[in-house]
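Attaching the record inline, Q. Sequence:
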Amino acid sequence: MCKVMSDEELGKLFRIITQHYEKYLQKYGVKPINLKDSNGNYTKDALVLLYLARGYPNTKAVSKAELTDFVRQFYPDVIDVQQARHLSKQKGYNIVSGTRGDISYKIPAGHYKLLDLENPYPAFKPDRREGIESNDFEELKKTYNYKCATCGSMEGKPHNIRSNELTKLQKGHMNPAKPLEFGNIIPQCQVCNRADRDRWIYDKTGRVIEIADSDDGRRVVEKYLKRVGRETKEYFLKFMQKILWK
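Structure, as predicted:
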């Protein structure tokens, strides 16, 4: 069950975040967070960061379901809150994920935890979301016939897998270790451009061609091998040796 936070609590906590940002995080290129938008509404990024920062510096691991319930107090129609992973990998806040498999700090799967407001997220790259204009992305989507490069779901239409959701195309990294710029992006739907996609390297057709992080890749392989039969396991090992154990 999520906690209710008053405007006074939110404002006080945001001032703490701002002070730490200016003192510690700004120099690393971590992106600033706006408390409210131009209409005076709390931004989703701020709500998620504030909820994770409750009790700072003694923060706790919070489930994605709890974060979603909290954001729904302000945005009742929200379905799936992705801000926690965006705040870490794209904006630089030191938030670890149990699902993502961060090795620096162990928390339950499906949970997030703000470690501190003094250090950036280790894998954060300040320039990874720069250099793409909206009009340019529209042109790129047009070359893909407004379909997800990976699953083929069409923008604005019911998703091929989640038929109760409309497809929304996003800027997907082909290689997450490089900046998000032309030559390194493909249009992907909100399902394919999911939390664990930074483990993979894609080609222009949206197919996985390599594992981006060898250590993380090994954990993915080991988890997979626990669920498959012997013959499939042997075939899979031979295939993965070409990528992970060259």
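The chain has seven helices and seven strands. The radius of gyration is 19 Å.

More tomorrow.
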